[in-house]
Amino acid sequence: MLYYLHSCFTERSPMTKFQLFVFALLSLLLCSLAVPVRAQAGIQLVSNEGSLSFPESATFRAEFQAGANITLVVLEYGVDQLTCGTVVAKSFPQFTPAADVQVEWTWEMRQSGSLPPGALLWWRWQVQDASGVQFTSPKQTILWLDDIHDWQAVTGGNINLHYYEGGQAFGQALHDAAAQALVRLSQDVGLRPEKPVDIYIYANTNDLRDAILYEPDWVGGQAFPGNNIVIIGVSADQLDWGKSTEAHELTHVLVGHLTFTCLGFIPTWLNEGLAMYGEGGPQSVELAQFDQAKAADQLLALRSLTGGFSEESDRANLSYTESYSVINFLIQTYGRDKMTALLAALRNGATTDEALQSVYGFDTDGLDDAWRTSISAAPRVGSSNPTPVPIPTQVPTIVPVGAAPVAPAAPTPRPTQVQATVTQVTITQAPGPAATSVPLTERLGISRDVVLGVEFGLVGCILTVLVIAVPVLVTTRRHHRRQK
Ligand SMILES: [Zn+2]
Fold first, then answer.
1. Which residues pair with 53 in a beta bridge?
2. Cα(348) to centroid of ligand 1, in Å?
3. Which of 67, 233, 262, 378 could cysteine-pair with 202, CB 3.0–4.6 Å?
4. Domain spanning 149-263: which CATH class is it, in words?
5. pLDDT digit string (tens) for 293-331?
6. Residue 272 Cα, ligand 1 centroid: separation in angstroms?
């Protein structure tokens, strides 16, 4: 071949120059076409969709095409919420390696723990083919909400209130009450939302329970601080109850946000006392019961209200009213800024006693004593107090999606040719910056797809040159021979 090329350049016939010109032109044209076509090759996202079967599951489907067999597809998914650290849930849909694959995976809420209506789900795909080309799809989101109800919204004042029954006046009244509660919480306690809170009003508790899979025995309203969401079942004839309940749950969202930490712990008397304060205080019946307990020297030790409240209703009611009374004492006596400082200290990891001591100069027992003095109750009896129950039960919570490994799901229906059953769901730390050496192309910001495309383009270019060069040069040589 080199000989042919050499002879072409050394022999001086007009025909040879013309043929060389044609050859060079064709090569240039084909090479210029080959490089960009191959540079765009890689893994293509053909389709990508999420669909809901509320409240049971969410299904994610996608189709990919690549120049080589696709060998790995990973689904990363989660829900927009406050979490401790960067945790990403992953699943590995099964499929037969091919240049064109369809995959599907279903997120079963009965296995992961149900999400609050209105939560924002997200997902993305990581794909790799046999030649090592990798692809990450853009992050997609879908709103986790039923389409059974005709949801209406009233917005403004950092409250998005969603309802579907009761009419516009009903929705407006609940929205305005929530917005007023926010103003009160801001003025008295220093609690403000970082972004609008979504409140979903179900028409009754049955509808509410249908929207969440697990069934707490007392459910009426529920706060999800990590998601910035409140859900309540309120019928049209329960407007007053609805207003106070949404204010209560709203307070839990704000307190949960302000004190969110992976280190700290907020005592139940503080959380529920603030929520009672947020809703405007106990009802007259509850206040009467509290006065009765005070007169009979049956008030509960504050330290016993650090964990879960009693299951027994009278004692639970007294726990709520007493918590409110303590919070009211702290705010009226020491003011808003100290309350904000107390919550900040808890967020920063201080124990309850440390936080109280640093802000007010007394611990839980000292607060108990000061509060009893302020309401003219009998002094605390140290040794006969019940011990705290170390389980938080009053602020409803669900298992965060990213917090625990999820069991393998049952096989799901799939399109033909796709073996899309779930084999494994793992929770892994999101990869941090690579500590190992980085390829030059990546440091230059050139993607692997482009590099491979250029490599393929060059190979194609060389082949083109050879394919054209051989007949052209052979013809030239033979022509020369005939001339000789
Ligand atoms: Zn509460």
1. 57
2. 22
3. 233
4. alpha beta
5. 999 999 999 999 999 888 888 999 999 999 999 999 999
6. 5
